[in-house]
Design a protein that fits this description.
Layout (H helix, E strand, L loop, with lengths): L6 E6 L5 E9 L2 E6 L8 H5 L3 H8 L3 E10 L3 E6 L2 E4 L2 E9 L1 H6 L16 E5 L4 E6 L5 E4 L1 E3 L22 E6 L4 E5 L7 E3 L5 E4 L1
Antiparallel strand pairs: 1-5, 2-3, 2-4, 3-7, 4-11, 5-8, 6-7, 8-13, 9-10, 9-12, 10-15, 14-15
Length: about 200
């Protein structure tokens, strides 16, 4: 990826918008392409993606689909690169990671185990909107970044009732924001994140 061609874009009204990611895996690492701001990865096209054909298209070792997911923040700023088409679905380059990330992430992060991802992303959760959070035994708060299709946004307030693996001292809660919540994530600071048992991910506030 030519870093001179990277640009930052702000996408508004992203709450509950559907997106998908394509992982292009080569011996040089993992490139992530994301549909945010372009389309909602239409189910008909998404389900019909030919991963073997995409592998040939990019000269990749492997290709993986990640999603669909649904964003929970109301606005975000992301760094993007080149645009590509995958079976009729347009997506933009958003990240590169070493192969070790692919190996570690094959089954997703271990539920309720804090990890430190590397990414550049600014997120805004708007005043007056609900947020859904995990609180660890030390009182650190992690806000839900995206929800899965099996849990529509209207069901998230009661998601805690479906969680059977919550460790002692952790809690799930919902609250309405009295002011905008802004998270500015980048490589210059340590990011703490955690996943629940449904592979939904939360970022520490």
């Amino acid at each position: 990826m030519d870093i001179s061609k990277l640009q930052k874009v702000t996408v508004k009204d992203t709450r509950d918008t559907r997106y998908g990611e394509i992982f292009i895996i080569k011996d040089t690492g993992l490139d992530v392409y994301n549909t945010t701001g372009l389309n909602d990865c239409p189910a008909k096209l998404w389900d019909a993606l030919d991963l073997e054909e995409i592998k040939k298209q990019f000269g990749a070792m492997a290709v993986q689909k990640n999603g669909p997911h649904f964003w929970m923040m109301d606005e975000q700023t992301i760094t993007i690169g080149e645009k590509a088409s995958f079976g009729g679905i347009e997506a933009r380059w958003v990240a590169h990671a070493p192969l070790s990330v692919v190996q570690k992430g094959a089954t997703g992060a271990e539920p309720f185990k804090v990890y430190t991802p590397q990414k550049t992303q600014s997120m805004v959760y708007s005043k007056g909107k609900p947020v859904f959070e995990l609180v660890d035994p030390d009182g650190n708060v992690y806000v839900l970044q995206a929800h899965e299709e099996q849990f529509p946004i209207a069901s998230l307030a009661s998601l805690g009732d479906s969680m059977k693996q919550v460790p002692k001292g952790w809690q799930y809660r919902t609250r309405t924001l009295t002011e905008d919540l802004k998270l500015d994530l980048g490589p210059e600071k340590t990011i703490y994140a955690v996943g629940d048992e449904f592979h939904q991910y939360y970022t520490r506030i």
